[in-house]
Every structure is written in structure tokens, then in C-alpha cells.
Amino acid sequence: MNAVGIDISKGKSTVAVMQPLGVVVAEPFDVFHTDSDLNNLTAFIKSLPGETKVVMECTGTYYEPVANALHNAGIFVSAVNPLLIDDYDTNRVRKVKTDRLDAIKIASYALDKWSKLREYRPAEALRKTLKIMNRQYIEFGKMLVMQKNSLSALMDSLFPGANTLFCSPTRKSDGHEKWVDFVLKFPHVDSVAKLTLSAFKAKYQSWCKKNHYNYSDDKAAQIHAYSRNQVSTLPLTDAVAKIVTEAVKMLNTTLETRSTLRIEMDKLSSQLPEYDTVMSLYGVGKVYCSQLISEIGDIDRLKSAKSIVALAGIDPPPNQSGKADPKSRKISKRGSPTLRKILFQIMIVYLENSPADESVYQFIDKKRAEGKPYKVYMIAAARKFLRIYYARVKEALALQDT
Fold this sequence. Notes:
Elements: E1 2-9, E2 12-19, E3 23-32, H1 35-47, E4 52-57, H2 64-72, E5 76-80, H3 82-87, H4 99-112, H5 125-155, H6 178-185, H7 190-193, H8 197-210, H9 217-228, H10 238-269, H11 275-279, H12 286-296, H13 305-312, H14 337-353, H15 359-369, H16 374-401
Parallel strand pairs: 1-4, 4-5
Antiparallel strand pairs: 1-2, 2-3
Helix pairs in contact: 5-10, 5-12, 6-10, 8-9, 10-12, 12-14, 13-16, 14-16, 15-16
């Protein structure tokens, strides 16, 4: 038995090899994540006599070059949650941490958990790409919130409430929002108020036609009347106009990028076998479908519905000691925060639409009637939704295989 423990870091890893009873086969040594070094590591591990298993922490994406190289060479690799390694063998008064000690600790863990190690399976390129795109989509969403708030604060001094004039959805072609394009054309309250109603209608109608927005006489009259009642605290100078223009350009670029990512995510997720099944779930549109598939991944790697709940970190672990056995327990949160947020947003869709014939909503309604707090019934409903997701996807995949 040869246990190879690899402590992963960015661009470099530390490797240690141990056998039972604490026999050190190879003192910890460094390996760079280059083609030549990984080939040498593969050859070294293959030269070890007897059965060999390699264990490493699944830290971000840093471990993937090493794990893939060894897996492709036919070596048993197990990528372990860093929390398991951190909790293992912590019988020290003084905390000591070095790459060499960590590599030995991981090798010791491999020996101790030898029969329970799960073999690493590289993610499909399509699923991996989809997950990366989803994370980028989320990051651009954060940027979008900041940019909208910044533009709204600027418009409070020029055209107060301009962001509330329209409630139309984003434009499908490029993701633009009407109020954002509107303030680019009419950046100041005076650019509307100083025009006669007929002159503004003509100008507004021309702008709507050019930008492919719907035009309404009533809406034009409403905007004109609204602008005449507003007071600006900043005059429209060339410098101010330039600030508005640049702010709108940045915001539109972010909107366009998110729109492109949203379309590409749907294209990728539609190539996966569970796409139609996930799309059929209530509250799941194209965006949530792509996000759920990207975060949950291949359902076959999960043993049961409990595993998918644990993946989201919404499982309440037992917390009993002596006579104390509280019925109310907090969720573990040792899972994907991104997945938890997606689930919470889907639960909000259930609350807003109140589909009486949907089992998840019926469950929410039941828990509310019992007097459960908001977070309690939302998390409980999210667990039920995940169990339904798991059952339906597994069933659909089984039918596809027959």
C-alpha cells in the first residue's frame, strides 16, 4: 500500500509517499504544474511497488492539472474536500502548517481512509465550461447592481426618478434596459421639460423607433408632465453630459455581456441530457435551468437525494449532547452558496405566483400555516425542490439509457 499525499497550491504542489505504520517512502518534494514535471511524477508513482492511491485536496481549480494528468495515466486519484483534511489529525496544542507537513498529513489520511476513498472523475468539458460561464454571469450581475446604483445616484441630481419611468423588461437582442438608453438621449430634466408636448412626442417617437422600443402617446405625455414637476440640482454642462454618457456606456456593456453569457449558457445546457427535465420544473426558466445544471453538475456522481441537499449546504446536521437534543437546528452551509442563492430565488417565484397545484408551493403553504418562520419554510421548500429535482432527473436519465 502506497499512499501518495499531494498538497496543492497555485502552480506547484508538494508530494509525500507513505506506507502503513508511518513508513515514509519518499520525503516531501515539490512538483511544478508543468508538462515535464507532471510526466516525471506520473512515472515515479507508477514505479512504486504494490497498490497505490493518490489523495489531494480539491482546492478551486488548482488541483485539476495534477488530478487529470494522474487520472489519465490510469492512477487512482481521490480529490477530497479540504474541510475533511483540516479536521483530520488535529491533536496538536500549537498549530503548525507547512506544505511538507500538509503533504504528510494528506498521505496519512489516505492510509486511514483507504477503503472509503472515492475515485476522482474529471468533469466533462461542457459542464466545466458551463460552470465557469455561470460564475462569470454572477460576477457581472454584481457589477451591474453597482453600475445601476451609480447611474441612479447621478440621475438624482439631473433627472430625479428617471429609473422609475419604465417597467418594460430588458431587450432580448442585447439586454439593454429602456430607462438606461432613455437617459443617454435625455440626460437632464430640462431636455424634456423645455420642449413642448408635441415636440417631445416627435423626438421621443423617433428615438423609440430607432432603438426598437414600443411607443405610446400616453406614456410620452406622462413623461413630459412628470419632467415639468421635477427639480434638478445640477445644470447640464458638457462635463456632466460626458459623465452620463460614459456611465451609460459602461452599464450597457455589462448588460450586453450578461445577455451574451445568458444565451451561450442556454446553448450549452441544452446539449446536456437533463435539460428538458429541469426546464419542466416549475419556477425554472432558461437562466435558472442553466444555473442549476452548472452548479449541481452530473447527477450520477451523487448517491442519493441527501447528497444533493448536502451539496447545497441546506442540510441541518444533528447537534445532540447528553440530554440536550434541540429540535431546531441550523443548516450546515457547508455547500455551494451559489446554489443556495439560486434555490432561494426559485422559491421566491413560487411565493410570487402561488401555484396551488404545485407540491412545493403546497409544502410552503403548509409550513406557513403551522406558523414556521420565513427562512425555515423557504429552506424546507428548497430541500423538497432538490429532492424532486434529483428524482426526476434520475428517472429521465434512466429512461434515456433504456
